[in-house]
What we know:
By secondary structure, the protein is of the alpha+beta class.
Amino acid sequence: MSITITIDGKPCVCEPGEYVLEIARRNGIFVPALCSLKPVLTERGCCRVCIVELVEDARSKVVVSCIYPVERECEVFTQSEKIVRERGMILALLKLLAPDATLIAQLAKAYRAPDLDRLEPNPEGGTCVLCGRCVEACSLLGTSSLAAVNRGVSKEIATAYHAPSATCIGCASCAGVCPTDAIPVVEDGAKRTIWNKDFELAYCEVCGELLGTVASLEHAATAAEVEPLFLCPVHKQKVLAQHLAHPYKP
Ligand code: SF4
Ligand code: FES
């Protein structure tokens, strides 16, 4: 049976078990989130940027909204003084980890993140906040070319030994899901370079639209047990329509 909670004073109908972040988004209420990308990826709850204050039976607690399931009526505050302060601290720490990430700098400013002068920012600079989205996206594609390597301050996302990965197909899904644009993808018209590996680019044989890398099209075709087609969606449909217009004759 549906229940009604309030988020920043707005009544929001939801199903028991729904996550607070989903309910907020469905109701047009913005909560910053870095590692969550539902329904494409699973919830990891690692960046903590999405914290909110939840009041139940007159008791208040801070919860991680992307992994907190609502079970009964409650009040949620996404911008309370406590949340702005705690989120600001989380963003200040993320800024030390990824000092060159524009998004983190913008969020840190918006949430009045304190200056943590006494702590050293990541000496390598960089834009990765170690959210894990890229690793999961790569694993979902069955390529698993990326992993978090090392520990502590040297932790990073990389291919094995930083070498060109034998399984990487250059699809750039990792770059597509990265919230901070931390994965460089370089294209020169004929080839794409990503994770220290070069890939031949494929174009639609009819209109010349860029389709992706040859390796990624072959990978998708192998998974679907069909021959790779170097056609854009529009021309694929036209080819299919031609086939339908000329039914098979024995
Ligand atoms: S490269 Fe991007 S997606 Fe991957 S862990 Fe870092 S911030 Fe997240
Ligand atoms: S978005 Fe919720 S913990 Fe990262």
